[in-house]
Amino acid sequence: MSLINTVGLTDDQRMMREGVLDLLSRHLPWENVRKMDESREFPHEAYQALADAGYISLFYPEELGGMGGSYRDIAVFLETLGYYYTGIAQAITTSAVYAGMHIAKFGTPEQKKELVPKIIAGTAKLALAMSEPGTGSDVAGLKTFAERSGDEYILNGSKVWITCAHVADYLVVITRTDRDGANRHQGISTLLVPTNTPGVTIRPLSMLGRRTSHANEVFFDNVRVPAANLFGGEGKAWKNIMSCLGLERLGLAAISAGHCFKITEYARAYAKERVQFGQPISEFQVIQHKLADMLILSETARQMVYRTADVLDAGLPAVTEASIAKIVATENNFKCADIGMQVMGGAGYSMEYDMQMFFRDSRVGPIGGGTNEIQRNILAKQMDL
Ligand SMILES: Cc1cc2nc3c(=O)[nH]c(=O)nc-3n(C[C@H](O)[C@H](O)[C@H](O)COP(=O)(O)OP(=O)(O)OC[C@H]3O[C@@H](n4cnc5c(N)ncnc54)[C@H](O)[C@@H]3O)c2cc1C
Fold this sequence. Notes:
By secondary structure, the protein is α+β, with helices and mostly antiparallel strands. It has helices at residues 11-27, 30-39, 44-52, 71-84, 86-106, 109-121, 237-273, 285-313, 319-344, 346-349, 355-363, 372-382; strands at 126-129, 145-149, 152-159, 170-176, 188-194, 200-204, 216-226, 230-231, 275-276, 279-280. The longest helix is centred in the middle third of the chain and has 37 residues, at 237-273.
């Protein structure tokens, strides 16, 4: 029994939800997910099937060959992916949103013409290379440097925690291009770097969760990049990064909200089957209340996601709403997994069941995409504190 209420969704959104779940059940059967998690295998078949069915075009405007989905459409789509499996959701958003949106919004006309159709078709994958060993929350402290030399840039430095770089065809690299910028937010630029360029080394990292779309280290050793690959204006990346955050946070929150429901349904099904003291444990009121709390966490996460989408659809930046949604949905996601594990007792803690994967997969939410401490700093600023 699904606990997801689709009241308020348009017929198209409801059909999209059903279509995505049907497609994933065929191209990423659930019995394969756990094996792929263990072998850290990227979900290529499901990724391509989603692209072939046109779903990646939802993120892009019609003038770039996309479907121009509303933020609500995008929220429903990502919630559905997150509900089915967070790893496929992360694979899609990394390329199409976190990296691809930089091209769609700020790319040169040539880059947009060349790359956006390939991203939509699933024939080009991108990764966003921003974080560095010395620079996570404090993005403006990044040290990777691209030195102009004639009609090229020579790129040196290293990046860390770069999701899906190991399967990416291109990296959207945030790099310093001016060491002497008076303000530390100036002098940061964006370079498009094909991953097969000499001097680029990508080393997979072993992460706790979402292992099918894992992170990597990336090293740049005198990488020669055509100057035409710099986009969004030299020294202008900071402002561009900021303008992508609303959609990024909406995406992270939507994936987590969907995942909350999956975990709740899984724990509920287990509790109805598991018999102790002669009765299913779901008949103990204490277990019922834990499951009710999980449903509350799921539904409140989802409502913040939809609220944020509505504010973005109204053309407003949704700075406050997006940060709240990111905090609520990612923290509720991990709380659901924690309560769900308790509901399942030893089985929850065992590698034989899915709950341990949900627990691991949900833990990254409060860390990635701007930690929840940074989100609370943003809220404090919005409150003029
Ligand atoms: C699985 C995963 C995938 C990722 N994918 C990508 C990717 O594709 N591309 C990419 O560029 N990056 C990626 N990241 C990096 C991610 O964005 C950073 O991990 C995150 O921004 C935090 O940076 P940090 O890990 O360096 O932690 P730090 O910045 O070192 O923070 C450590 C702790 O200090 C807190 N803290 C730091 N500054 C403050 C402050 N001012 N006020 C209060 N608390 C503070 C943090 O909240 C945190 O709790 C990924 C990370 C993970 C874990």
